[in-house]
Here is the input.
Amino acid sequence: MKLEEIHQRLAAKFGERIGAPSPANKDPFLPIKAEDVVEVCKFARQDPELAFDCLMNLSSVDWPKKNQIEVVYHLFSYGKRHALILKVALDRAQPKIASLEPVWKSADWLEREQFDLMGIEFEGHPDLRRIMLPDDWVGHPLRKDYAEQPQWHNITTTRDNSLEGYVRLDELKKKAADAAAAAAKKEMPS
Amino acid sequence: MPKDYQQDFGSIITSRTSFIDEIINLARKNSIFYLLFGLACCGIELMQTGGPRADIDRFGSVPRATPRQSDLMIVAGTLTYKMAERCRLLYEQMAEPKYVISMGSCASCGGLFQYAYSVCKGVDKLVPVDIYVPGCPPRPEALTEGLMRVQDKIVRERWFSARQKVGQAQPSLGIDYKVTA
Here is the structure.
């Protein structure tokens, strides 16, 4: 099925709740609302025409200027050989969305990854822990405004540049040379 | 050999201590067992060094799978903060005397990934490093050179003669040991 057909099929069921498809020159996607995500995905999986039996990827995008975090779902159907992208915009201050783990089991770790790196809370997830970073990590590193902590478990997170000493030495030498030149100029008229 | 030495072999041992040291160090330098600690692409090069072409075995250096049996830890690859604690634990599990080679840019200073949030900026922030081997990744020849520098370090060490000094603490032995007589 083409994206238009998939959109028509979803729109026939959910009406206005499915957003308009994006321009076709880009990777096309359908925007949906956060409260509909479980319902739409359950339908997309169980409907015999759509039959999206695989959640290929679950990622997210941070938009600080729009004050949004977008969750992106990549669906694929092995039987029908078609794919679909769904996007959900969330509030950046408190990103919360229902978990898709009951629909696709593969969402378990994918949602944990987004919780770890982007700080999105998936409600109803059975085991929402950090998956990549240590459990006591502070912050969510893939957010645009993430700042690294000065140290982690008494290990400093910065390293002195060994070349900086040489640069400083160069500057000192140049300053001394300038001062000497200025002193020589002062002495000249007298 | 002087006459009195022939009469009493024990006096040779106690009086020619540097000679004993040389024998001990000869044995030690030709049996540096290293801990298999490949973390990233440097680990592949570490395997090559152990393989038949570079053949680090000819220095008596064989890989061990446990820190308890190894003398040398070759930190090969990018060290993340999550792995950093394991690295420190492995180092502490090794028996003294122990040596560390920091292999490649990542282990030495964070390398290509030093601006990443999850990468430790150098293994020397955790454990004392004896030899830094530069490269990204270093060739097996470079790592072999690093091992030979460790051997040089071992040859210069004095164990038996240092132990003979009465009343002196031995911090290099890692135990609170004082010679009393």
Summary: Chain B touches chain A at residues 81-82, 84-85, 109-110, 114, 117-118, 120-122, 125-126 (CB under 8 Å).
